[in-house]
Design brief:
Chains A, B: One of its GO terms (molecular function) is DNA binding. The structure is a homodimer. By secondary structure, the first copy, chain A, is α+β, with helices and mostly antiparallel strands. Chain A contains 8 helices and 8 strands, in the order H-H-H-E-E-H-H-H-E-E-H-E-E-E-H-E. The structure holds manganese (II) ion (4 copies). Chain A binds a DNA duplex through helix 3.
Chain lengths: ~220, ~220
DNA sequence: AATAATTTTTAGATAACTCTAAAAATTATT
DNA sequence: AATAATTTTTAGAGTTATCTAAAAATTATT
């Protein structure tokens, strides 16, 4: 059985190292989890003991097969709860993350699969991130950063890379949501800002925005 | 801020001492929580320090006003989650308790009130126990134990006193559910068992059953 | 290749919660 | 009222997860 703390470490390693496959440094984990490197070392030893991570002193850690499975299951729970909060409980997409951080640790063999069915087996969460199915398989959606889209092309917003509350609120304010049609009107070389057409309105957005919005070509 | 452990102690004191008003003994808490009396003493001191309980050495504990408020809020969360699990996620009434024990500790100012609205402000949980509203007020429902009902009277099942999985499954097996009409046909003095008519079927039930089924007169 | 800077680990301490065993207080029995 | 039984508290120690400070290993710079 994994503790809440162990699960959070597993999740951090999963997210930092390309789905847990790459080696992740002690410091990177410490930063991600807002803790000290010495604490990370302690926990990583414990996780290695439990065969959840591969660890060699000074060489960083990666997830074992069991570790990846554990991580994917937590991600599944997190994202399903986010869908529930937005679709059923009137949460906005900038409010769900903290609550999902708690709900993702609830242990029940039945709960998540029933929730999945109740939500009609969603494939993506409110931020456009894919939800793994019961067996851990992700539905691949080929998305591209808005900054890569050519001028005069229209595309559809399908996700965000930055899901900080501030960024999401900014998008809300300018009526940019998943499903929004965006036409790239112009790009400015000097500051890499771009002008887009959204809901009939012209809007100039910074490099940060275009680099953190995922779109699909139409 | 209350920890998960503190919340569980508060809840135990609330349930053992008539809504936290009566004094509860250290041993009673230890038994309820499946822990040692010495651990209870430690925690009770901590709770007294936080002004959640009234405590005098060797005299037992009761909840303060803040303690009652905390307890009622946990009970509210527990019962609302139980309704959610039964009404929305196809859980049966004998499966919900353990999951609700986990969910009741989720902290979110918005979550519970939205859940309450989503469930259409239920007044009772799947076991017939009242759900306090936002302000901690319980809707009183005058219920009586089936064992108190006179012969030849018909009544409606509105709750259970024993909500152990075994007892609930027994009720399921004999199609006794909240809302079921029950007519008391006969009482046997020698073992205090009674014969009831339910769904057109005659059934003899033990003293335990009649003492743990709440009914409302019709 | 030697030295400096950085990263990582170890050592030792602390906080929250738990336990066992012994001491103290209360309650029951004679 | 004295003694016995029970309950409750204290003392001391273990576990998990955290921290600071110092030591060791790795990586970068000269
Ligand atoms: Mn999230
Ligand atoms: Mn998300
Ligand atoms: Mn319950
Ligand atoms: Mn209940």
């Amino acid at each position: 059985m994994t503790t809440l703390t162990e699960e959070n470490y597993i999740k951090a390693i999963y997210h930092l190292g390309k789905h847990g496959t790459e080696n992740v440094s002690t410091n990177a984990i410490a930063q991600e989890m807002d803790t000290k490197a010495s604490s990370v070392t302690d926990m990583v030893k414990k996780l290695a003991e439990k065969d959840l991570v591969n660890y060699k002193k000074y060489q960083g850690v990666s997830l074992t097969q069991t570790g990846v499975l554990t991580a994917v299951n937590i991600v599944r729970k997190h994202r399903l709860w986010e869908v529930f909060l937005v679709n059923k409980l009137n949460f906005s997409w900038d409010e769900v993350h903290d609550v999902a951080e708690q709900l993702e640790h609830i242990k029940s063999p039945k709960l998540i699969d029933e929730l999945d069915a109740f939500l009609d087996f969603p494939t993506h969460d409110p931020h456009g991130d894919p939800i793994p199915d019961k067996d851990g398989h992700f539905s691949k959606l080929d998305k591209v950063k808005l900054s890569k889209v050519a001028v005069n092309t229209t595309c559809t917003c399908v996700g965000v890379d930055d899901s900080s509350s501030d960024f999401l609120k900014y998008l809300d304010k300018h009526n940019i949501a998943l499903g929004s049609k965006i036409k790239v009107m112009a790009t400015e070389p000097f500051d890499e800002s771009i002008t887009i057409l959204i809901n009939g309105v012209h809007l100039s957005v910074s490099k940060h925005v275009s680099n953190n919005l995922f779109v699909r070509a139409n």
